[in-house]
Design goal:
Elements: E1 29-32, E2 38-42, H1 44-54, E3 57-62, E4 69-73, H2 75-91, E5 98-103, H3 109-124, E6 128-134, H4 143-156, E7 161-163, E8 168-170, E9 173-180
Length: about 180
Protein backbone atom coordinates (compact mmCIF):
# COMPACT_ATOMS: atom_id res chain seq x y z
CA UNK A 1 0.00 0.00 0.00
CA UNK A 2 1.38 3.42 -0.99
CA UNK A 3 1.58 6.27 1.48
CA UNK A 4 0.00 9.67 0.84
CA UNK A 5 2.69 12.23 0.11
CA UNK A 6 4.93 9.61 -1.45
CA UNK A 7 6.04 9.60 -5.03
CA UNK A 8 3.18 9.63 -7.50
CA UNK A 9 0.57 10.87 -5.01
CA UNK A 10 -1.50 13.82 -6.15
CA UNK A 11 -4.17 15.21 -3.83
CA UNK A 12 -7.60 15.62 -5.35
CA UNK A 13 -8.09 19.11 -6.74
CA UNK A 14 -10.93 21.06 -5.20
CA UNK A 15 -12.87 23.44 -7.39
CA UNK A 16 -14.90 25.87 -5.32
CA UNK A 17 -16.64 27.74 -8.17
CA UNK A 18 -19.70 26.69 -10.14
CA UNK A 19 -19.47 23.56 -12.30
CA UNK A 20 -18.70 24.30 -15.90
CA UNK A 21 -18.12 22.65 -19.29
CA UNK A 22 -17.24 18.95 -18.93
CA UNK A 23 -17.87 18.97 -15.16
CA UNK A 24 -21.66 19.26 -15.73
CA UNK A 25 -22.80 15.63 -15.55
CA UNK A 26 -26.58 15.48 -15.57
CA UNK A 27 -28.73 14.00 -18.33
CA UNK A 28 -30.65 17.20 -19.10
CA UNK A 29 -30.16 20.95 -18.45
CA UNK A 30 -32.06 24.16 -19.11
CA UNK A 31 -29.85 26.45 -21.21
CA UNK A 32 -29.73 30.25 -21.36
CA UNK A 33 -27.88 31.74 -24.33
CA UNK A 34 -25.07 34.28 -24.22
CA UNK A 35 -27.56 37.04 -25.09
CA UNK A 36 -29.91 36.03 -22.24
CA UNK A 37 -32.46 34.18 -24.38
CA UNK A 38 -33.97 30.85 -23.31
CA UNK A 39 -32.67 28.00 -25.48
CA UNK A 40 -34.77 25.32 -23.74
CA UNK A 41 -33.97 21.84 -22.41
CA UNK A 42 -31.11 19.88 -23.96
CA UNK A 43 -28.31 17.47 -23.23
CA UNK A 44 -25.16 19.02 -21.72
CA UNK A 45 -22.91 17.94 -24.60
CA UNK A 46 -25.17 19.76 -27.13
CA UNK A 47 -25.11 22.91 -25.01
CA UNK A 48 -21.33 22.61 -24.58
CA UNK A 49 -20.91 22.28 -28.36
CA UNK A 50 -22.99 25.47 -28.84
CA UNK A 51 -20.91 27.30 -26.23
CA UNK A 52 -17.63 26.24 -27.87
CA UNK A 53 -18.93 27.43 -31.28
CA UNK A 54 -19.56 30.88 -29.78
CA UNK A 55 -16.19 30.84 -27.99
CA UNK A 56 -17.70 30.82 -24.48
CA UNK A 57 -18.06 28.45 -21.53
CA UNK A 58 -21.12 26.57 -20.28
CA UNK A 59 -21.56 27.54 -16.61
CA UNK A 60 -24.05 26.02 -14.16
CA UNK A 61 -25.77 28.98 -12.45
CA UNK A 62 -28.53 27.15 -10.57
CA UNK A 63 -27.50 23.59 -9.63
CA UNK A 64 -30.46 22.94 -7.30
CA UNK A 65 -33.18 23.60 -9.92
CA UNK A 66 -34.88 20.68 -11.65
CA UNK A 67 -33.35 20.46 -14.26
CA UNK A 68 -30.21 22.50 -13.47
CA UNK A 69 -29.93 25.88 -15.23
CA UNK A 70 -26.78 26.59 -17.24
CA UNK A 71 -25.74 29.71 -19.10
CA UNK A 72 -23.42 30.24 -22.04
CA UNK A 73 -20.98 32.97 -20.93
CA UNK A 74 -17.35 34.05 -20.70
CA UNK A 75 -16.47 32.62 -17.28
CA UNK A 76 -13.26 34.64 -16.90
CA UNK A 77 -15.13 37.91 -17.45
CA UNK A 78 -17.92 36.80 -15.08
CA UNK A 79 -15.41 35.93 -12.37
CA UNK A 80 -13.59 39.27 -12.77
CA UNK A 81 -16.81 41.31 -12.56
CA UNK A 82 -17.97 39.36 -9.51
CA UNK A 83 -14.63 39.99 -7.81
CA UNK A 84 -14.89 43.73 -8.56
CA UNK A 85 -18.46 43.86 -7.23
CA UNK A 86 -17.46 42.03 -4.01
CA UNK A 87 -14.55 44.44 -3.52
CA UNK A 88 -16.83 47.48 -3.96
CA UNK A 89 -19.40 46.15 -1.50
CA UNK A 90 -16.64 45.45 1.04
CA UNK A 91 -15.43 49.06 0.74
CA UNK A 92 -18.83 50.43 1.69
CA UNK A 93 -19.12 48.32 4.84
CA UNK A 94 -18.82 50.13 8.15
CA UNK A 95 -16.94 48.15 10.76
CA UNK A 96 -18.07 48.88 14.30
CA UNK A 97 -15.56 47.89 16.93
CA UNK A 98 -16.43 47.04 20.53
CA UNK A 99 -14.09 48.74 22.99
CA UNK A 100 -14.09 47.70 26.63
CA UNK A 101 -13.47 49.69 29.81
CA UNK A 102 -13.06 47.77 33.05
CA UNK A 103 -13.79 49.22 36.47
CA UNK A 104 -14.12 48.02 40.05
CA UNK A 105 -16.84 48.97 42.55
CA UNK A 106 -14.29 50.92 44.63
CA UNK A 107 -12.98 52.98 41.70
CA UNK A 108 -12.68 56.66 42.61
CA UNK A 109 -14.97 59.21 40.94
CA UNK A 110 -12.08 61.03 39.25
CA UNK A 111 -10.79 57.77 37.73
CA UNK A 112 -14.25 56.96 36.40
CA UNK A 113 -14.54 60.45 34.84
CA UNK A 114 -11.11 60.00 33.23
CA UNK A 115 -12.15 56.68 31.70
CA UNK A 116 -15.43 58.18 30.52
CA UNK A 117 -13.41 60.59 28.36
CA UNK A 118 -12.09 57.50 26.57
CA UNK A 119 -15.61 56.11 26.20
CA UNK A 120 -16.79 59.47 24.82
CA UNK A 121 -13.98 59.34 22.24
CA UNK A 122 -14.95 55.77 21.26
CA UNK A 123 -18.57 56.82 20.74
CA UNK A 124 -17.52 59.84 18.66
CA UNK A 125 -15.62 57.46 16.36
CA UNK A 126 -18.85 55.40 15.97
CA UNK A 127 -17.53 52.48 18.01
CA UNK A 128 -19.46 50.71 20.75
CA UNK A 129 -18.21 50.72 24.32
CA UNK A 130 -18.64 47.91 26.83
CA UNK A 131 -18.31 49.04 30.42
CA UNK A 132 -17.72 46.23 32.90
CA UNK A 133 -17.45 46.40 36.64
CA UNK A 134 -15.60 43.40 38.05
CA UNK A 135 -16.14 42.16 41.60
CA UNK A 136 -13.75 40.17 43.72
CA UNK A 137 -14.43 38.40 46.97
CA UNK A 138 -16.79 40.33 49.25
CA UNK A 139 -17.31 43.09 46.68
CA UNK A 140 -20.25 41.01 45.39
CA UNK A 141 -22.18 42.19 48.45
CA UNK A 142 -22.06 45.76 47.07
CA UNK A 143 -23.66 45.10 43.69
CA UNK A 144 -26.03 48.01 44.32
CA UNK A 145 -23.03 50.40 44.36
CA UNK A 146 -21.96 49.03 40.98
CA UNK A 147 -25.46 49.53 39.57
CA UNK A 148 -25.38 53.13 40.79
CA UNK A 149 -22.00 53.71 39.10
CA UNK A 150 -23.34 52.34 35.79
CA UNK A 151 -26.48 54.47 36.10
CA UNK A 152 -24.32 57.60 36.57
CA UNK A 153 -22.12 56.62 33.59
CA UNK A 154 -25.19 56.21 31.35
CA UNK A 155 -26.42 59.65 32.49
CA UNK A 156 -23.00 61.23 31.70
CA UNK A 157 -23.07 59.78 28.20
CA UNK A 158 -26.75 60.36 27.37
CA UNK A 159 -25.92 63.17 24.90
CA UNK A 160 -23.63 61.00 22.75
CA UNK A 161 -24.59 57.37 23.39
CA UNK A 162 -27.37 55.11 24.53
CA UNK A 163 -27.30 51.68 26.21
CA UNK A 164 -28.29 48.78 23.99
CA UNK A 165 -29.80 46.91 26.94
CA UNK A 166 -30.11 47.16 30.68
CA UNK A 167 -26.95 46.40 32.71
CA UNK A 168 -26.68 42.67 33.34
CA UNK A 169 -24.75 40.47 35.71
CA UNK A 170 -22.65 37.63 34.28
CA UNK A 171 -20.95 35.78 37.09
CA UNK A 172 -18.86 38.36 38.98
CA UNK A 173 -19.13 41.11 36.35
CA UNK A 174 -21.80 43.73 35.80
CA UNK A 175 -21.73 45.08 32.26
CA UNK A 176 -23.53 47.31 29.80
CA UNK A 177 -22.91 48.01 26.11
CA UNK A 178 -23.33 51.62 25.01
CA UNK A 179 -23.70 52.36 21.33
CA UNK A 180 -23.39 55.73 19.56
CA UNK A 181 -26.61 57.68 19.08
CA UNK A 182 -28.00 57.39 15.58
Amino acid sequence: MRRPGGRGFRPRQRFDGPRMNERIRVPEIRVIGSDGSQLGLMAPYDALRMAKEEGFDLVEISPTAKPPVCKIMDYGKYKYEKQKKDHESKKKQVKIALKEIKLRPNTDKHDIEFKMKHVRRFLEHKDKAKITIQHRGREMMHIDRSREILKNIIEWLVDIGEPEAQPKIEGRTLSVIIGPKT
